Amino acid sequence: MIETNSQTAVHIIVHGDVQGVGFRYFTQKNALSLGILGWVQNQYDGTVEIWAEGERHLLEHFIRIVRRGPSHSLVSDLDITWPPPTGNHIGFRIHYV
Questions:
Q1: Is 88 part of the annotated catalytic residue set?
Q2: Is residue 2 part of a domain?
Q3: Distance CA 78, CA 64 (A)
Q4: Which of 24, 30, 56, 88 is catalytic?
């Protein structure tokens, strides 16, 4: 059984109309408000990639927020994996590729 407050990580690939609509800033703002650490970046294939670390229940809430996206986005799918956390993050940053 997984504890709902244990530290973990989630890796998310966001598909849909998610670039050029403020998605990275939306993600960063919501992650910081939840105390989630990690990063977000656009990918060349039109997806947005997110690495987030924090308490499991907060990450699950964060995933629901990401699935909704900002008002001008259209999220069609999320690829979600739960790897072990690295513990190497300070804050939540936007990476540029």
A1: no
A2: no
A3: 10
A4: 24
Asked if residue 7 lies in contact with residue 55, where contact means CB atoms within 8 angstroms, the answer is yes
Residue 29 domain-assigned? yes
Contact, 12 vs 84, CB < 8 A?
A: no
Q: Tell me the residue range of the domain where 20 lies.
A: 7-95
Kindly indicate the confidence band of residue 3, based on its pLDDT and cuts at 50, 70 and 90.
very low
Express each pLDDT in 5-26 by its tens digit: 678 999 999 999 999 999 999 9
42 is catalytic: yes
Q: Which of 1, 23, 9, 89 is nearest to 56 (CA)?
A: 9
pTM over cut 0.90: yes
Report if residue 1 sits inside a domain: no
How many Å apart are CA 83 and CA 64, to the nearest integer?
18
Residue 84 lies in a domain: yes
Structure tokens that stand for 11 in this block:
């890796």
User: How many structural domains is the chain composed of?
Assistant: 1
